[in-house]
Every structure is written in C-alpha cells, then in structure tokens.
Amino acid sequence: MRTLIFATAIRMLTPVFLAFSIYILFRGHNHPGGGFIGGLIGSIAFVFHILGLGTRQTAKSYFSITFYKYDRKPHHGTIRHALRLLRKNLDRRKQKEKPKSIWNYYLLRLRPTYLMAVGLLVAVASGMVGLVLGKPFMTAYWVEGKIPVIGSLGTPLMFDAGVYLLVLGMVLKMVFTISKD
Fold first, then answer.
1. What pLDDT, in 10s, does the model give residues 20-55?
2. CA separation for the pair 81, 98 (Å, rounded)
3. Closest Cα partner for 42 from 69, 17, 71?
4. Burial of 100: CB neighbours in 10 Å, binned 0-12, 13-18, 19+
C-alpha cells in the first residue's frame, strides 16, 4: 500500500540515506564501517524508494542519465535556426502535433549488473597495485597528504569503494528482480 506521506518522506530521505552511506564508506578504513555496510545502507535507501514510489520511478530517477546535445544544421545560423524551429513548434502545437525539438538527447541506463561489474573491477584493481609494484597482492599504498573530510586516500579506500558498488549492485539486482511488475 503506497501512501502520499510515505512517498513524500522517501523522496526527502533517500538522499540523506545515500549521503550517510557514502560517509560510512569513507569512514571505514579508519573506524568501523566501510564498503559492505555503506553498500547495505545505500541499498536500503533504494529499497525504501521502490516501496514508496515503485520500480519504474526508482529506475527513472536514479538509474537513467540523460545527455543533451544541440542539433546544429551546417548552413543555418544558430539563432535563426532556433527561431524557425520555435515558430514551427508553435504552429504544430496549434495543430496538436508532436513538437520537433532543437535538442537531441541520449539516454544512458545504469543497470545493477554494471554496478556489480565495476565494483568487482575496482576491488581487484586495488589489489593489483601491489603486484604491479612488486609487492604481495593487496598491499596497501597511501597517497601523501590528507583531504579534510575524507582523510587519506589509498588502495584500502579503493577496495572499499569496489565492495560498496558490488554490494549495492547485488542488492538492487535482487530487489529489481523480485519487484518486477
């Protein structure tokens, strides 16, 4: 049962859950937490969003990226061409036709399987750094200096980020499969 109050609360709380999961991810290499717990907290945000707004709305809101590109004609001036298309769109609107846009867009869909693959690749790559430098697998290397909020950057954080993406993708794949309409 979906209610308006729950749907509105989830719209506001999902970014808070995601920000907290990222905080737990960055906190994990110095204190309790890390990629696994952060991935589970991020997954909970998406599970609540699915419960409140549905699978399609969640996939549309968080797993589809739209890129826009201006459609230029080679022999027309940009402003003149835009005004001509605007006039055509206004004429078509009177005739109830679908307007022709001067913007082309491309939709990129992020699937949970891609998150799992990228997470596994990042986790394995963090261990390969040691092998490439002639040390044992999973040897930790740290970057000089610290970032104020994040702390030190190094291969343990890279491994945690890979685990975070892997856990997030795995839970989302299960939830999307179970909640198919």
1. 999 999 887 667 778 899 999 999 999 998 888 888
2. 18
3. 17
4. exposed
